[in-house]
Write a structure and sequence with these properties.
Blueprint lengths: L1 H30 L3 E3 L1 H24 L9 H21 L7 E3 L17 H16 L3 H29 L2 H5 L12
Antiparallel strand pairs: 1-2
Length: 186
């Protein structure tokens, strides 16, 4: 059981480090004349992710499950998502953020996984929220937070795309790319 808590704690620490990086990147974007949009729903995203970890910890503590061989499948998918996360975040560099930060006139990043998808990082988050609980057979957490995340992403993506279309070359670059399914580079 200790190994489960350590694993989940490592993921939480990773997220906290990412928030620190995001805040640093947000300050840089603001110093360049950028601004934040979608502040109204950001607090719900933070709450959703915090509650996800609370729910996961409660479910793995309350429900006594033994290790099953098929848990390796979501574990592998989760680790592949981590590689995708590193690829997506490093591709965006200083433009990566947990908030919607817009730098007017900036050229949108269209390298790395962004050559194929509009929102690879969101696809990765969806994968993680589904797979992490499944590793530990925390089915309720997987179901509830996958649905809740889909709802909040439906709001967030609209706000983000509208802001980027208004202030950058987003429409021109991503017009033929799908949001979550890979499409060949034009």
């Amino acid at each position: 059981m200790l190994a489960i808590y350590v694993f989940i704690l490592l993921v939480i620490v990773q997220r906290l480090v990412e928030v620190k990086i995001a805040n640093r990147n947000a300050n840089w974007i603001k110093s360049q004349g950028g601004y934040e949009v979608g502040k109204e729903h950001y607090k719900y995203i933070v709450a959703l992710h915090a509650l996800f970890f609370v729910s996961l910890l409660i479910e793995v503590s309350v429900i006594d499950r033994s290790f099953v061989l098929w848990s390796i499948v979501p574990l592998i998918v989760f680790f592949l998502a981590q590689l995708g996360r590193i690829w997506a975040l490093s591709s965006l560099g200083r433009f990566w953020n947990t908030r919607i930060m817009v730098l007017p006139g900036a050229k949108v990043v269209a390298k790395g996984p962004y050559r194929y998808l509009r929102h690879p990082n969101y696809a990765i988050v969806v994968t993680e929220l589904a797979c992490l609980p499944l590793i530990f057979q925390a089915y309720w957490t997987a179901i509830v937070f996958t649905i809740a995340n889909a709802f909040i992403l439906s709001v967030r993506i609209k706000v983000e795309e509208q802001a980027l279309e208004h202030a950058t070359n987003y429409q021109e670059v991503f017009d033929k790319r799908k949001r979550f399914m890979p499409s060949p580079e034009e």
